[in-house]
């Protein structure tokens, strides 16, 4: 166990690797992707009104897409931004309390060029570029905080 979050989820392990291949590990599935989006030394965050927190983009892997396509789609759906330079960082195994199961997530980093208009959607009510030295008007998700740290270590 690497970290227990206040919502009851547990970060079980992190595997830094070059491609998202899930190890043979208790038949734990790779089910979603997360992407830490960077621009000019800042991080693009979305505010999730349901969880009342700032987060990195990410979500469930859909049939017919690659895990990379999942990361790109989720970034666009949640932030309205078109990302590029997608780079795989590693896999993380997470125990999800609300599902009472373990799942793997694929962690990516990416960037974007021009900030496109944002439209409020079911998962985010606003976006912002954030410098970790700045304060936020709501909390930063503990998982997103950890993911940003992993990306900073990988750079």
Give a quick summary of the entry.
The chain is an alpha+beta fold and 155 residues long.
What does this structure look like?
This protein is of the alpha+beta class. It has helices at 67-79, 142-154; strands spanning 3-4, 10-16, 30-39, 42-48, 53-55, 57-60, 83-96, 101-112, 126-130, 139-140. It has a single domain, classed as Nucleoside Triphosphate Pyrophosphohydrolase (Alpha-Beta Complex), CATH 3.90.79. The longest helix is centred in the middle third of the chain and has 13 residues, at 67-79.
What is the mean predicted local confidence, pLDDT? 95
Order of helices and strands, N to C? EEEEEEHEEEEH
Instruction: Work out the count of structural domains.
Output: 1
CATH superfamily: Nucleoside Triphosphate Pyrophosphohydrolase
> What is the level-2 CATH architecture name?
Alpha-Beta Complex
The low-confidence runs, each spanning 5 or more residues with pLDDT under 50, are: none
Number of helices: 2
For the record, what CATH class applies?
Answer: Alpha Beta
Number of strands: 10
Q: Could you please say which CATH topology applies here?
A: Nucleoside Triphosphate Pyrophosphohydrolase
Computed structural class: alpha+beta
Q: Characterize the overall form.
A: globular
Q: Tell me roughly what share of residues is in helical segments.
A: 10-25%
Radius of gyration: 15 Å
Give the helix/strand layout:
Layout: E1 3-4, E2 10-16, E3 30-39, E4 42-48, E5 53-55, E6 57-60, H1 67-79, E7 83-96, E8 101-112, E9 126-130, E10 139-140, H2 142-154
Parallel strand pairs: 3-8, 5-10
Antiparallel strand pairs: 1-2, 2-7, 3-4, 3-6, 4-5, 4-9, 7-8
């Amino acid at each position: 166990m690497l970290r227990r979050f206040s919502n009851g989820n547990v970060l079980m392990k992190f595997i830094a690797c070059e491609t998202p291949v899930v190890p043979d590990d208790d038949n734990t599935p790779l089910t979603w992707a997360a992407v830490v989006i960077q621009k000019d030394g800042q991080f693009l965050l979305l505010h999730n009104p349901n969880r009342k927190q700032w987060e990195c983009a990410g979500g469930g892997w859909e049939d017919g897409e690659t895990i990379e396509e999942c990361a790109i789609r989720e970034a666009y759906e949640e932030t309205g931004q078109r990302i590029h330079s997608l780079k795989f960082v590693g896999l993380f195994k997470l125990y999800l309390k609300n599902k009472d199961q373990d799942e793997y997530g694929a962690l990516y980093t990416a960037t974007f060029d021009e900030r496109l208009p944002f439209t409020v959607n079911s998962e985010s009510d606003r976006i912002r570029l954030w410098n970790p030295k700045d304060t936020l008007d709501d909390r930063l998700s503990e998982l997103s905080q950890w993911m940003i740290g992993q990306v900073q270590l990988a750079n």
